[in-house]
């Protein structure tokens, strides 16, 4: 939250967190942390417009074809897609933040 507040103080513009994500098994923890920190920044009056989760689902590695498990959507061996429950919960927390932002502006 402090880094976001510093960036806002310096540039005096609304912020958007872009391309944030982590490989499994840290993905659930990372998105929950991001939601928590964005919530703290919003509560402190930082105008946060949103967050972009990237990548949103598993992909083949850039310099090799290894399976990279990441994002709220998991691909299995036959390319079926499944939601990762922990990341779905974090996405729900992120989706709740704009309402918190509106409320903090009204206060």
Can you walk me through this structure?
- The structure is a single chain.
- The chain is of the alpha+beta class and 107 residues long.
- The protein is 46% helix and 21% strand.
- It has three helices and six strands.
- It has helices at 2-11, 27-43, 85-106, and strands spanning 15-20, 48-53, 59-60, 67-68, 73-75, 81-83.
- The strands form three sheets. It has a two-stranded parallel ribbon with strand order 1-2.
- A hairpin with a 6-residue loop joins strand 3 and strand 4.
- The longest helix has 22 residues, at 85-106.
- It is elongated and about 45 Å long.
- The protein starts with a helix and ends with a helix.
What's the short story on this structure?
By secondary structure, this protein is an alpha+beta fold. The chain has three helices and six strands.
């Amino acid at each position: 939250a402090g880094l976001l507040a510093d960036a806002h103080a310096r540039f005096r513009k609304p912020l958007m967190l872009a391309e944030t994500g982590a490989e499994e098994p840290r993905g659930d923890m990372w998105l929950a942390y991001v939601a928590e920190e964005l919530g703290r920044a919003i509560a402190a009056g930082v105008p946060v417009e949103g967050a972009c989760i990237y990548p949103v689902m598993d992909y083949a590695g850039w310099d090799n074809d290894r399976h990279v498990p990441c994002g709220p959507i998991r691909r299995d061996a036959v390319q079926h897609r499944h939601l990762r429950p922990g990341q779905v919960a974090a996405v729900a927390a992120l989706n709740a933040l704009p309402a918190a932002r509106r409320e903090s502006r009204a206060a």
